[in-house]
Amino acid sequence: MPDVILKTRSLTKEFKGFVAVDQVNLKVKRGHIHALIGPNGAGKTTFFNLLTKFLHPTTGTITFNDIDITFEQPAQTARRGIVRSFQISAVFPHMSVLENVRAALQRNLGTSFHFWKAERTLTHLHQRAHELLAEVDLQDFAHELAVNLPYGRKRALELATTLALEPELMLLDEPTQGMGHEDVDRVTQLIKKVSAGRTILMVEHNMNVVSSIADRITVLQRGAIIADGPYADVSKNPLVIEAYMGTVNTELQGAH
Fold it and tell me: Same domain, yes or no, for 177 and 162?
C-alpha cells in the first residue's frame, strides 16, 4: 500500500469569484493523525466538503490510495473507506447506545433498509457492537438512550458509529467543539486510542488537543496552506502566529 493515503494536487474551489480553497497540495500519511487548523473562514470545512464530495473542485485533483477520486459520488467515496463525522452529534436520540452502533453496522452490511426483519436476525451484530462500545469506553452505557448521554459521551458514541463503517481514513470535524475540559481530555484520548491501525484527518480548534496527538499539522489561511509540518515547527512559524493575530498565539506557544 502507498505510504501516502490521501493526496490533493492544486485543489481549488471558487464561489462566484471568491476563492475558498486555493491551490492546496496536501499529503496525508497512512497511520498518521493529521490536523488541519486555521482561523475561522480559512477554508477548512470547504476542504472537507471537497474530500467527501459534497462539493466538486473548480480545479485540481484528489487521490486516495493512488486512485483519482476527484469526481466520484459521495457514496462511492464512502465505500472506499473515507468516513466523516460532523461538527454536530449525529446519532439517533431515542435509540439505545447499542442500537445506534448496530444500525451503523447494518449500514455497512448493506441491510440498513431491512426494517421488516425480526430483531433476532440482528443478534449476530451484537458482539461487534459491544466490541466497538468497549473501544470508546461506552460499554457501561449500552442500554442507555442516546438522548440521555452527556455531550462528551455522545461524541464518543458518534466515534463508535463512525468506526462501525470500518473507515480506512476518518475525517473528524471539530471533535471536541463545545466540550468542557474533562470531556475534551476524554475524547482526545479516545481519538488517540482508535487511531491505532487507522489514519485520521481532523479539523480542530483546540491547540492543546492538536499539540498532544497530531503527528503532522497543516495550517490554512484564506484557503491556502501557509505552514505544514510537526507541531513544534508550525507553532513557531511567523506566518501562523500572524494568521492568528495573537488570539491563539499564547495557545500556540504554550500548548506544549
Answer: no
Check whether residue 94 and residue 221 sit in a common domain: no
Which structural domain, as residue segments, surrounds residue 140?
Answer: 90-166
Q: Are residues 162 and 174 in the same domain?
A: no
The Cα 20–Cα 16 span in angstroms is 10
Q: Which residue in this structure is represented by grid cell 466520484?
A: 72
Tell me the C-alpha distance between 110 and 115, whole Å. Answer: 12
Alpha-carbon span 149 to 134, nearest angstrom = 16
pTM above threshold 0.70: yes
Tens digits of residue pLDDT in 225-241: 999 999 999 988 998 88
103, 138, 166 - which closes a domain: 166
Q: Tell me: the pLDDT tens digits for 72-103?
A: 999 899 889 999 886 555 688 999 999 999 98
- For residues 79 and 47, the answer to whether their CB atoms sit within 8 Å is no
